[in-house]
């Protein structure tokens, strides 16, 4: 009876961990949705820049600051994922080796995305400096930046697909844990 009680407590503990992982995943879904909304807003801001050349410098500064905030948010997400990984117990880690490998791949992808965003911010800063010294060719630059923004949006959608794949694997883990309980 004591062993059964201990096993039930261990199972309950594992179920709580799975619930926590699911809650964290739901929070990531909300953050992803928020990022998509922000990305849409940024795209609208860039379109306004092309029609309002006299306000161009201020709009560029806002776009750069927004990209910096997005890079910071992605960095925070990466740190949260690392903390979640480090806080997991040994038994869960053994059962989730495949999940851990995928998490590491997501972290690497997030790091690459952060690096790419930081490079874009630097590029936008250089563009802003160029724009402040001469406004000629602004419409082509804005269009190019809109294209880059579209590319970033596509990357964000790809990250969402990866997140869905992660969710499916998490659900498989929950099913496996439930099966092991029986």
TrEMBL record:
Residues 4-176 form a coiled coil. It comes from the Eukaryota. Keywords: Coiled coil. This is Uncharacterized protein. It comes from Homalodisca liturata.
């Amino acid at each position: 009876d004591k062993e059964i009680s201990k096993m039930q407590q261990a199972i309950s503990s594992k179920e709580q961990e799975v619930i926590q992982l699911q809650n964290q995943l739901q929070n990531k879904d909300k953050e992803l949705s928020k990022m998509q909304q922000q990305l849409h807003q940024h795209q609208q801001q860039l379109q306004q820049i092309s029609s309002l050349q006299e306000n161009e410098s201020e709009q560029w500064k806002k776009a750069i600051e927004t990209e910096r905030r997005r890079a910071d948010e992605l960095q925070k997400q990466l740190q949260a994922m690392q903390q979640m990984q480090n806080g997991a117990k040994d038994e869960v880690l053994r059962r989730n080796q495949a999940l851990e490998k995928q998490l590491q791949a997501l972290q690497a992808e997030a790091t690459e995305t952060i690096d790419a965003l930081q490079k874009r911010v630097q590029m936008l800063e250089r563009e802003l400096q160029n724009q402040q010294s001469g406004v000629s060719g602004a419409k082509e630059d804005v269009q190019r930046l809109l294209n880059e923004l579209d590319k970033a949006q596509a990357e964000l959608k790809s990250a969402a697909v990866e997140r869905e794949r992660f969710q499916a694997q998490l659900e498989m883990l929950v099913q496996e844990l439930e099966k092991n309980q029986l």
